[in-house]
Amino acid sequence: MRAAHVPPAERVRDRLRSVLDPSDVAKLPDRYQRLGRVLILRLPEELRPAFAAIGAAWCAELGVAAVLRRAGSARGELRIPELELIAGDDARTEVVEHGIRYRFDAARVLFARGNKTERHRIGAAVRPGETVADLFAGIGYFALPAAVTGRADRVWAVEKNPESFRYLEENVRRNGVEDRVRCLRGDNREAELPTGACDRVVLGYLPSSVPWVGRAASLLRPSGGALHVHLVVGHREGAADAEGTVRDAVERAGATVVRATGRTVKSYGPGRDHVVVDVLARPGTGRRD
């Protein structure tokens, strides 16, 4: 009879039973996040003396080159991940999603696996020939799907974080879309973007990209276009509350909302959800506060 599959976390526990006290073995996590050749774990601080042994055990079981311990949430305006290397010496990695290659340093650049479906959805929503602006491009999270999957004619990708921008340029080249993606480094409010020329604008900043709705609306064609506005809301309020918040921001920017639809992307911690609101809007035809 075929032996039952033993989960990686249990195999790691077995490796460490001779090294750790039983009480410490019980504190080892069941869950992990794998990003190519890099693994990310949540480990309690009291296990710090065993971090190296724990990291080595995971490397041996899953064949990864590096293990990172998540020490906290992403910090600051540039969303820098709170991670520390506990095994290996190089956290550079590559993740492939729907044929798109994302290269980055997992210790220094945020990459949310939970946004995989949303990245693909945006790529599928773009139509060949569109002009798209991504105001928070990162390493190409949405700009690359727009260009590769959606076959956009032009993608304007703006990123302020210098580390992310370096990988954005590299990923554009690695995916062979450098002729259609224009990378701009700096604050999107100051970037030279084509006012009134975009069919679609992505605002993928958390906890809220609502403050940039006015900037995004000014980029839409006079005939209108789509905005994809990301924000975090309470679980009880949900997508309906997010729709109202974004609708009001679009109207305060002087645009008319034709349609607004919110959808949950993923959980964003206890009691909170990451939501995206898709807005079809026409600029310059509504109220302006």
Number of strands: 13
Relevant CATH superfamily of the largest domain: Vaccinia Virus protein VP39
Would you identify the regions where 5 or more consecutive residues have pLDDT less than 50? none
Largest sheet data: 7 strands, mixed
| Beta-strand content bin | 25-35%
What is the helix tally? 8
Question: Would you give the CATH topology of the largest domain?
Answer: Rossmann fold
The chain-level mean pLDDT equals 93
**Given this structure, which CATH class of the largest domain is correct?**
Alpha Beta
Report on this model:
Helices cover 26% and strands 31% of the residues. It has 289 residues and is an alpha/beta fold. Helix 5 links the parallel strand 7 (131-134) and strand 8.
